Amino acid sequence: MEVKNQRLIELGFPCHQVGAETQRERDTGKAPPVNRLHVWWARRPLTPSRAAVIASLDSADTDPEVFVRKLGIERVQALVNGEPWALTGDLLKFIQRDGENGEYLLVDEKVLGRLKAEEDRRAENREFIVQLKEKEPTLDNNAVLIQWEAESQPLPKPWPKEGESILVQRVMGDPAWYKNLMQIAQQNNLRVPNLYGYERAFSNTPNAEPTNLVVLDPTAGGGSIPFEALRLGHSVIANELNPVATVILHATLKYPALFGLELTDDIKKWGQRLLETLDEKLAGFFPRVRILPDEELIQLKDLLQACPEYISEFNKEQVTTYLYTRQVTCPHCSGEAPLLNTCWLSKEAKDP
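The chain above was modelled as a monomer; its predicted structure follows.
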C-alpha cells in the first residue's frame, strides 16, 4: 500500500552529517548558552533537536543538502577566479547583497590581507599532507585526504584589487568529512587545523518567520526541542512533570519570549543575590577567594620571575562552582528531584 505525505524523518536523512556536527557541539567545551542555565543530565544537543523538528515537517523528497543547510551546517564561500574560499568570522561582515546579482564580497585592504593569510594556510596544509602521506603511504588514494588536497590548492591569480568585488556562494558544510580527517590524523599522532569553514551550527539562528504550526513536546525535559522549534518560527507546547525541568523550561522559553531583553537586568540582579547568599552561607566552608595551592604557586612564581612584585596580586583564585544542593523537594507534591545523578566527588585515590 502506498503511503502518502511521508516526512523526511520517516525515510531517513543525512545522519552522518548530523551526528558529526552533534559530536562537535558536545566536544567543544563551549556549550550553548541554554545548557549553562542549569545542569540537566538528559539535555539533548541543539543540532539533532533542530534536525528532528525540521525533518518531521519537511516532505520525504526534500533535498538533503537543503536540509543540512537549514541546520546551520553551511559554508559561505567567495569565488576567487572560480576557486572557493571559505569566509568565517568578521569576514562575513564584508558581504554585500544585491537583489539581482546575489551576494558578493567587497574587497579592501583587510580582505586582501586575509586572502594572503588563506594562501599561506593552504601552503601549510599541502606540506602537512605530504608529511602525512610520507608517514602512511597507504593514504595516497584515500578519498578524505584527496578532498583536503583539492581544497588546499593555491588561489588562482590575478587576485582582485581594492574596490572590486568577489562573487559569494553558500554551500553545505561537511562535518562528516572533517571528522574522518581528524580520525586519520589521530591515528598518526598528528593534529590538523580547524577546517569546518563555518561556525558551530547551533550558533546559527534561522531567519524564520512565524509558521502558524504548533510543535508539541510532551516530555520536554531541558527544552532543547521546544527551543529549536521556537527559533524556527513555530508555536510550542512543552510539557514536563519534573519540577526542576519545568523551571528550566520557563526560564529558557517562556520568560525570554514574554519579556525579551528587559529580562537581562533581573537576571543580573538575582544572580548577584545568589552569589551573595552563597558567600554568606558557605564562606566558612568554601571561600570564594582563596590563595593558590602550593603547586600552582610554584608555577606562578616561575611565570613571574621577571616581575615578582605581582606574585601577591595574582596569588588567589576565585571559585563560584561549588555544589551547593544535590536535590530539592517539590513544594507541591513533596517529591524529591535530584540535581545530579551521582554522589561521587572523586573516583581517584589521592593522599589526604
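The mean pLDDT is 89.
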